[in-house]
Amino acid sequence: MNDILVQTSWWVPCYGLLGALLTLPWSMGLVKRSGPRPAAYFNILMTVASLIHGTLVFRATWHQEPVQLVFHWLKVADFDLTFLVEISSTTTGVMELVTSLSFVAQIFALGYMEKDFALARFFGLMGFFEAAMSGLAISNSLFLSYALLEMLTLSTYLLVGFWYAQPLVVTAARDAFLTKRVGDILLLMGVVTLSVLAGSLNFPDLYDWAETATLTPLVATLLGLALIAGPSGKCAQFPFHLWLDEAMEGPNPASILRNSVVVSSGAYFLIKLQPILNLSPVALTTLIVIGSITAIGESLVAIAQIDIKRALSHSTSAYLGLVFIAVGMQWTNVAFLLLFTHAIAKALIFMSVGGLIITTNTQDLTEYGGLWSRMPATTSSFVVGASALVGLFPLGCFWAFERGLDIYWYDQPLLAAIVLTVNLLTAINLTRIFRLVFLGASQPKTRRAPEVPWPMAVPMVSMIIVTLLSPLMMMRLSLLPNLASLNRSAAAALVLSGIIGCSIGATLSLNRSMARPIQKQLRVLQDILAYDFYIDRLYRVTVVFVVASLSKITAWIDRYIVDGLVNAIGLASVLSGESLKYSASGQSQFYMLTILIGVGILGLLFTWTLC
Amino acid sequence: MLSILLWIPLIGAIAIALWPNFQSGRQVKQFSLVVSVLALVWTAVIGSQFDIAIAGSQFQETIPWLDSLGLRYQVGIDGLSFPLVALNSLLTCIAIYSTDDDLERPRFYYSLMLLLNFGVVGAFLAENMLLFFLFFEIELIPLYLLIGIWGGARRGYAATKFLIYTAVSGIAILGSFLGLVWLSGADSFVYQPDLAHSLSLTQQVVLLGGLLLGFGIKIPLVPLHTWLPDAHVEASTPVSVLLAGVLLKLGTYGLLRFGVGLFPEAWAVLAPWLASWAVVSVLYGAFTAIAQTDMKKMVAFSSVGHMGFILLAAAAATPLSLVAVELQMVSHGLISALLFLLVGVVYKKTGTRDLTILRGLLNPERGLPVIGSLMVLGVMASAGIPGMVGFISEFLVFRASFTAFPVQTLLCMVGTGLTAVYFLLLVNQAFFGRLTTRADGKVVTLPPVAWSDRYPGILLALLVVLFGLQPSWITGWTEASITQLAKTAATPVAVLAPNAAAAVLGQSSIPS
């Protein structure tokens, strides 16, 4: 029985894909009478199927050796492309996390997207999304993982561009796709190079190769940098981080997944790559550097945002920055733990945000206020999610941070300081959001806000329970350190940073109508942070400008030089014919003369070449 | 057996031209559709009896013709030509199916279509160089007329340009063939891989140069490409489908069959230059495409770029890279045909292809949602998103060329990234956004798209996905022949290649 379960475990991602295909009749408009709801139900059903199947596989693999499934896909000449799928308790656990969050997000979407005419398309894309991510979880082949990451790029593009009639959405979808695509192309360069150098694209073979490989430093560095470019794009790390902020224009249920598991899938891939990255110290250092820049920078930027989703999405980048640092330091366990705890906490916070948006029809933080008594479930899910995120003992992220601090405490005090700073800044940001949204006087848009309907409330409340129970789950999975060996000073510093952050956040003056400081320096600082260090403008004057001008130049060359030359030759031949026709005078002497001159020139030429 | 593949379209074309009793254009269309489907079925029959394990040509037929000239009617099919023949038969069906019912001068049009099919199939099947040349030229005439009569506003200019360019290409190819036969002292134009062995390297390079010029025009490679955007823009949709889908493949097929196959040593000498030429083509095509505002022109320039990948892989001339060439040919054929079909539908329904005007075509009630979705799929396939055939073919191209030309390959990969840029611009401009209201304030409601307009696109999209998931269904046909081609042809390159990569990568040996 167990054997069958394990052998068929690759079906789990396929359920999501099947669900996506089943929505086609509705999204293509073939079936109109029933409305789009059946498509959603089919998809949820398929997710439930993958959830059940996944759970059974998870139980079957618990305390078992990992099983490798091999699929021969393409064998051409001397090139053999096989897919390796690893079924172990870790990979199936990750797959379970993905499917269950996808399930919760889909139930949530039933309420959130209720009135959207394109419900079927949305659910189809969600199914596709889920399939790609859960496939990534069990993939043990670089090629397959690359392909699935590209699928994620595509589905991100389509999900962000879901409401494609709005101009901001169109640019957001474009930026999301292109930013990720730049990373993907660099990654593809790395994949192709690895495939040539190592001769295989399965992770176990690559790990073996990486242990013995001798590369010149330059090649190793370039390879390492190419490989981390892909995950940097996926995880919205500096300098590829702009898209995540813009992607918040998309529907919220997709944002739940995007901020929790989609960005994490990039990091998961990075963790898989880690043994290969060891070849290049420069790449590891780069990971730490971009991780640190993103972690601190984005935490600061988050504080200056007035769009609630954007304020939270920047903090997602920051947390993923911490994961990058952990991978760069080769502490993949910390990275894993952080990904897991962050995913659950962020999903919960984004659910609460979804509830806020759907009832108030605004995402502007300055338009909220006084919602705590009106929306108790939403409020408590925000509070629980936020406390899990800032590392409040004993909730999720506390353990991840503690583990990281424990390691960095003595050797890398700077990194420990970064972790504490991020925690502090996040605490400030979350407290600020909490005060703006839930406390204070109610405003026109929040005055009559009711609690969210049950399709949204049920997943929200169940996620609250999951978040509260996550320490217990981690204990069962033996992911937690034993309390006795806890680094007390680190834990104390962590809790203290959270408390300081909360108190700063609580005492910040938040005047809604006059959110601009009067002092000029502060105003400039606020603008720099609010516009994300003006990086989009930097892009515009560099990369975008270069591509645009190159394309204009080549188009000009094509039109006026290449094509112009051809047309000029055509014109010259026509003109010469036109002018020569007047030489047809009828005088035979003239013809004789022409022949004579022609033969003369020919003869000259021949004698020339002969001597 | 094989000749039937030639007879079906030829007899069909003659019948359409001469049969007096056609009542309407619709009837002519149905008749020619039946003929083209027959050809497709016959291709399938041949495919079912085709032995993929045999490397050499199969179903050979020889009839003496003008033996004093060295011209024989000699046809055969192998793994190199079969996928292209199948692609041609399929796309001819699709092109005829998607032609307007109320076309003017239908009998002339459809007989030209079938004649085009005849010429192309003949060129793929010919095993005599002179015969190849004849078919290569035959295909030119119907295409010239198809563009020149049923084209857009500047059809005369475009058709003449196409004619002159292709005539030059024909002369260059013929010159090389004649030179090869005379210099090697062969007594006929029969295709033999070892024909050029007795020639000096200089002679080989010169003759190969002629072929490169000739086929480079057909492919087309920058800077010999300017006929293509004009021809595409002016040609009607079905003609564009055939032009991009099949006719360009004649050029790459010729390069593979005659360039790699006949002049291996010269090929090895020129290969680094060819790879660099490929980079120029890829990047030039991509950058120019970004600046286009006409959808069709954009797709045409993307063709220029994507055909550059084929040159890159052909330059490497390893077994893997040549399989990649074949796969990329088929994948480009399917994808570009799909894109041209969809652009055609958009043009038919909106009356424009101008990206500065079109907006919001995905609108589910008043726009073209299904066509838009297919377009998204098509451009993603072209940009090399996995799950579709464009990805695996490009991946193989890069993987195979990297061993020989690492730098050029990396530069070509930048080209795939740029593909995403211009096609995203296309989708974002034309399909996303709000469906514009007209100047007089009225709501634009586009005429509904009939399902018959969608079927060809859906079929091609399915094939693109199917072969993307199972690329071995194409590579399987072609592998045996390609391996032999690579073996007989490219021994010098194979020795040279790992060293080149090793020099750059600083590694002593590379398993490939």
How do you describe this structure in short?
The complex is a heterodimer of chains A (611) and B (512). Chain A has helices at 2-7, 11-22, 24-27, 37-61, 89-112, 119-138, 142-160, 167-198, 203-212, 217-234, 242-246, 252-277, 281-303, 308-328, 332-360, 376-389, 396-411, 413-438, 454-476, 488-507, 520-530, 535-580, 588-610; strands at residues 67-76, 79-87.
Can you count the beta strands of chain A? 2
The value of Rg of chain B in angstroms is: 22 Å
Low-pLDDT sequence parts of chain B: 492-504, 506-512
- Largest sheet report of chain A: 2 strands, antiparallel
Query: Can you count the helices of chain B?
Result: 19
Instruction: Tell me the overall shape of chain A.
Output: globular
How many domains of chain A? The number is: 3
Q: Looking at the structure, what is the overall shape of chain B?
A: globular
Number of strands of chain B: 2
Largest sheet: spatial strand order of chain A: 1-2
Strand order of the largest sheet of chain B: 1-2
**H/E order of the elements of chain A?**
HHHHEEHHHHHHHHHHHHHHHHHHH
What percent of residues of chain A are in strands?
under 5%
Q: Percent of residues of chain B in helical segments? A: over 70%
Number of helices of chain A: 23
Please identify the oligomeric state. heterodimer
Mean of all residue-level pLDDT scores of chain B: 89
Summarize the largest interface: chains and residue counts: A-B, 58 and 72 residues
Report mean pLDDT of chain A, rounded to a whole number: 89
Low-confidence stretches of chain A: none
Describe the 3D structure.
The complex is a heterodimer of chains A (611) and B (512). By secondary structure, chain A is mostly helical. Chain A has 3 domains: 1-140; 141-530, no CATH class; 539-576 and 584-610, no CATH class. In chain A, 74% of the residues lie in helices and 3% in strands. In chain A, strands 1-2 form a two-stranded antiparallel sheet. In chain A, strand 1 and strand 2 form a beta hairpin. Chain A is globular and about 115 Å long. Chain A starts with a helix and ends with a helix. In chain A, 54% of the residues are buried. With 512 residues, chain B is mainly alpha-helical. Chain B has one domain. Chain B has helices at residues 3-18, 25-49, 82-97, 106-125, 129-138, 140-150, 155-184, 201-218, 227-234, 237-262, 264-290, 295-316, 319-350, 369-382, 389-404, 406-431, 451-469, 472-489, 491-505; strands at 58-66, 71-77. Chain B has a two-stranded antiparallel ribbon. In chain B, a hairpin with a 4-residue loop joins strand 1 (58-66) and strand 2. The longest helix of chain B has 32 residues, at 319-350. The radius of gyration of chain B is 22 Å and the shape is globular. The two termini of chain B are 40 Å apart. The interface between A and B is large, with 58 and 72 residues.
